[in-house]
Design a protein that fits this description.
By secondary structure, the protein is α+β, with helices and mostly antiparallel strands. The chain has eleven helices and 13 strands. The chain starts with 9 loop residues before the first helix and ends with a helix. It is an enzyme of class 5 (isomerase).
C-alpha cells in the first residue's frame, strides 16, 4: 500500500515507498515466499479440494484400521525460522512438522477441534460467506474454552493447507474504529473519507486490501476504550487538533492482562490527586 501525504513531508513518504518497492523486488529475485505459503488468495475450488483431500486421507486411515493424524508445520520452533534482510523473520521452506494424533490423549481434543473448524471453513467457502474468528469461537465457546485456542487452530490450518486465512473465508475480529485526516480505498473499490466526519469509520477486517491511503496527519492517537474514543469525538478532538488520526483498537477482554492489587492501589491513588481530578476525561485517559 502506498501513502500519498499532502504536506511538506511528501518526500519522506516517497523514500519509504521506494524502499518498500526495493525490498519486494529483492525478495522476488531471491525466490522467497512469505510464511504459510505466501499471500496469494486461493480460489474457492482449491480450498474445497484441499479440505476434501484431508478428509479422504482420514477415511483411508480408518479403513486401514489406522489412527488418523494431522501433519502440521511446527510454528513454535525457532529452527523453522530464518531471518532475511529484506523481509525479516519468516518460516523456512522445509520446516520440521508435528503430528496431531487422534489416538493420543494429549492431542485428541485438538484433533477434534481442527476437524470442527475445517467443517466450518468448508461451509463458509461453499456458501461464499465470511465469519470472524470471534464468530467461530461463539459457535461453541464452552467447547473451545477461549479465543486463543481458536486463533491457534486457524493459524495451524492455514499453514497445513498452505493458504492465507482470507482464502478460508475467515476474517480477524473487527479492528476497531478510526477518525481524522485519512482517506483510502477498500478492497472492493469503496472510497472512504474519515476527514471531517462526526462519526467514526469501522476499520475493515481485511486491512491488507486497503490501498491509496492519503493523509497529512502529524500524529496518531490510539485510544483503548470505546467510551473514551466516543467522548473525544463528541468534543470535536480531531478538528481541534487537526491534522491527526484517532484510532480505537478492539481488544477481546480475555486477552487483556488484569491489574495486580498493587497496580490498582497505585492507580486509585493517582486518580485522587487534585490535578488529575480537575482534568477533562480525555486528559485522564
Amino acid at each position: 500500500m502506498a501513502f500519498a501525504p499532502m504536506g511538506p513531508e511528501a518526500s519522506f513518504f516517497e523514500v519509504l515507498d521506494r524502499h518498500r518497492a526495493s525490498l519486494l523486488a529483492e525478495l522476488r529475485r531471491a525466490g522467497g515466499e512469505p510464511p504459510c505459503g505466501g499471500t496469494r488468495l486461493a480460489s474457492s475450488s482449491e480450498v474445497l479440494a484441499s479440505i476434501e483431500n484431508i478428509i479422504q486421507d482420514i477415511i483411508i486411515s480408518l479403513a486401514r484400521n489406522e489412527a488418523p493424524a494431522f501433519t502440521i508445520d511446527n510454528r513454535s520452533s525457532w529452527e523453522n525460522i530464518k531471518f532475511e534482510d529484506s523481509v525479516g523473520l519468516q518460516m523456512v521452506s522445509h520446516c520440521t512438522t508435528r503430528k496431531i494424533k487422534s489416538d493420543s490423549p494429549k492431542s485428541v481434543q485438538k484433533f477434534a477441534l481442527i476437524l470442527k473448524i475445517l467443517s466450518t471453513i468448508y461451509k463458509l467457502v461453499q456458501s461464499n460467506t465470511y465469519a470472524t474468528k470471534r464468530d467461530i469461537y461463539y459457535t461453541d465457546s464452552q467447547l473451545f474454552g477461549n479465543q486463543t485456542v481458536v486463533d491457534n487452530i486457524i493459524s495451524d490450518i492455514s499453514c497445513m493447507l498452505k493458504m492465507p486465512r482470507r482464502s478460508l473465508h475467515i476474517l480477524s475480529t473487527s479492528k476497531g474504529l478510526i477518525a481524522g485526516n485519512l482517506r483510502y480505498i477498500e478492497e472492493d473499490g469503496t472510497k472512504v473519507n474519515c476527514t471531517g466526519r462526526a462519526t467514526a469509520i469501522a476499520v475493515p477486517s481485511n486491512i491488507q486490501g486497503i490501498r491509496n491511503l492519503i493523509t497529512d496527519a502529524k500524529f496518531v492517537l490510539i485510544v483503548e476504550k470505546d467510551a473514551t474514543f466516543q467522548r473525544l469525538l463528541d468534543d470535536n478532538f480531531c478538528n481541534k487538533m487537526s491534522p491527526c488520526i484517532m484510532v480505537t483498537l478492539n481488544i477481546p477482554k480475555d486477552s487483556l492482562i488484569p491489574l495486580t492489587k498493587r497496580d490498582q492501589m497505585k492507580l486509585d491513588s493517582i486518580l485522587k490527586r487534585p490535578y488529575v481530578t480537575c482534568q477533562p476525561f480525555w486528559r485522564k485517559e
